[in-house]
Amino acid sequence: MGTGTIAGNLHFTEPNPNIPSLLDGTIEVVDYNKPLTGSMVGIDSSGFGGANVHTILQAHSGPQVKNLPRLKPELPRLVLVAGRSADTLAASISFALHDLTTYLHLTTQYVNIFFCFSGDLIMHSLYTQYMNNFVLKQR
Known about the structure:
The chain is 27% helix and 19% strand. It has helices spanning 20-23, 86-103, 108-122, and strands at 5-6, 34-35, 40-46, 52-58, 81-83, 127-129, 137-138. It folds into 2 domains: 5-58, no CATH class; 81-138, no CATH class. By secondary structure, the chain is of the alpha+beta class. Strands 5-6-7 form a 3-stranded antiparallel β-sheet. The protein is extended. The chain contains 3 helices and 7 strands, in the order E-H-E-E-E-E-H-H-E-E. GO terms for molecular function: fatty acid synthase activity; oxidoreductase activity. Residues 15-96 form the Polyketide synthase C-terminal extension domain.
């Protein structure tokens, strides 16, 4: 919602003929990047294992905080990254370093994404890693 674009579905080819609302245009599968109009979106996820969720999100109408001020900005920022294997950990680090070199900064929101996704994994991980140290140490 922060970019104003609805990301297109990568794997959609044609609507299911057994779903009339897809055929008559009542609902649509976004198969290309589309401008987001309005401030609310519905997100639906249906899983084969029975995990079915539907939620409605509304964009925050207040100012967006790009970065919170830091008392000592010259100090390195610690980014927690966790993985269940050395390969998944290395992939997460590669992803973060790609974004860091592409955008040349870590925003508070970006770091929070890593904290949210890594937090649950840390308790179940064999490997942990600091951002600029590539030695994988098994715990």
